[in-house]
Amino acid sequence: MPHEYSIVIADTSCFILLDKINELYLLQKVFGLVTTTQDIADEFRKPLPEWVKIEAVTNKDYQLLLQLEIDNGEASAIALAIEAQNALLILDDNKARKLAARLNLAYTGTLGVILKAKQAGNIPFIKPILQKIQGTNFRLSEKNYR
Questions:
Q1: 106/5 Cα distance (integer angstroms)
Q2: Given this model, what pLDDT does residue 26 score?
Q3: Less packed terminus of the chain by CB within 10 Å, N or C?
Q4: Contact (Cβ atoms closer than 8 angstroms) between residue 141 and residue 20
Q5: pTM of the predicted model, to two decimals?
Q6: What is the pLDDT of residues 64-113, one digit of tens each?
Q7: Assigned CATH topology for domain 7-145
C-alpha cells in the first residue's frame, strides 16, 4: 500500500474481526475515514463508528452481477470500488480477493491492516493481536501467524 487511495472500502469480515478482538479503532488509526456500503453495515449488525462513511452503490445491476460469484456485502464493496476509482478494498474472503485481482482493484486484508498499523507506529507489536485473532473463528494459517 505504498500510495494514497482516494477511498478505503472495508468489507464485513474486517469490521467483525477487529470488533471481536477490540481493535476496530485500528482502521481509523491507519486510514482515517473508512467507507462501506449499507449492505455491509447491515451484515455487521452493530452501529458503526462515526469515522465510517456509508456510501451507496450507483450501479445495482453490476452489484447483482458480482453476486453471482461472491456474497452481497463483498459484491457491494467491489461495485463501489469500481465506481470510486483509486480505491483500496479490505477483503478477507479468497473468492472476493481473486475477483478483485481479476478486476485490477487494489486490496488488502485485515492482517494487512494490522501490519500497516505496526509499520505506521500505531501499535507496538503484532503478536498480541494475532494471539487474540487465534481465539476467534478467523482462519489464520501458521505461515501468516509467523
A1: 9
A2: 96
A3: C
A4: no
A5: 0.92
A6: 999 999 999 999 999 999 999 899 999 999 999 999 999 999 999 999 99
A7: Rossmann fold (3.40.50)
DSSP string computed for the chain: --S--SEEEE-HHHHHHHHHTT-THHHHHHHSSEEE-HHHHHHH-SPPPTTEEE---S-HHHHHHHTTTS-HHHHHHHHHHHHHSSEEEE---HHHHHHHHHTT-EEE-HHHHHHHHHHTTS-S-SHHHHHHHHTSS----HHHH-
Tens of pLDDT along 58-77?
999 999 999 999 999 999 99
Q: Which residues pair with 9 in a beta bridge?
A: 35, 89
> Comparing C-alpha atoms, which of 68, 62, 112, 51 is closest to residue 84?
62
Q: What is the pLDDT of residue 145?
A: 58
Q: Which three cell numbers stand for residue 137?
A: 473463528
Q: Are 99 and 91 contacting, i.e. CB atoms less than 8 angstroms apart?
A: no
Q: Which amino acid is at 113?
A: V
Joined together, the cell numbers standing for residue 38 give 449499507
